[in-house]
Amino acid sequence: MTPLEVAVSVLVAAGVFFVFVGAVGLIRLPDVYTRAHASSKADTLGAGFALAAVMLSFGFSSQAVKTAVLLIFVYVSSPTAAHAISRAAYRSGVEPWTAGDGDGGEEG
User: What is the pLDDT of residue 105?
Assistant: First the structure.
């Protein structure tokens, strides 16, 4: 394997890892606020690493520039969407989960 192929493989593996962590967070976390946080952060990183791998595999070309623009769009839109979802939940009266709600495994 060439160093370029190794770098692309590492970036893809990192992207898959972060998307998997985001999916687990989406399933395991107790309320909309923590789920939005986990999915926003992890999926943004996962998509960032995957798009960086695509940019490396394209080399210096117009496709790499288009991928860079897509990467910037993902970095701006994903956290903004998570914020909008959380804000809508807050305005709708959704209460945040607290340690006393019983799902955390803590006594009290």
Answer: 52
- Please report, for the chain, the start and end positions of each structural domain, with discontinuous segments joined by +: 3-93
Give the whole-angstrom CA distance, residue 55 versus residue 60.
Answer: 8
Classify 34 as helix, strand or coil: helix
Render pLDDT for 70-86 as a digit per residue (tens, 0 to 9).
Answer: 999 999 999 899 999 99
Whether pTM > 0.85 for this model: the answer is no
37: burial class by Cβ within 10 Å (0-12, 13-18, 19+)?
middle
User: Comparing C-alpha atoms, which of 14, 12, 26, 33 is closest to residue 88?
Assistant: 33
Residue 16 structure tokens: 């898959």
What sections of 1-108 are H helices per DSSP?
Answer: 3-28, 32-58, 62-91
Query: Within a 10 A sphere around the Cβ of 12, how many other Cβ atoms?
Result: 17
100: helix, strand or coil: helix
Backbone dihedral region of 106: left (phi > 0), alpha (psi from -120 to 50 degrees) or beta?
beta
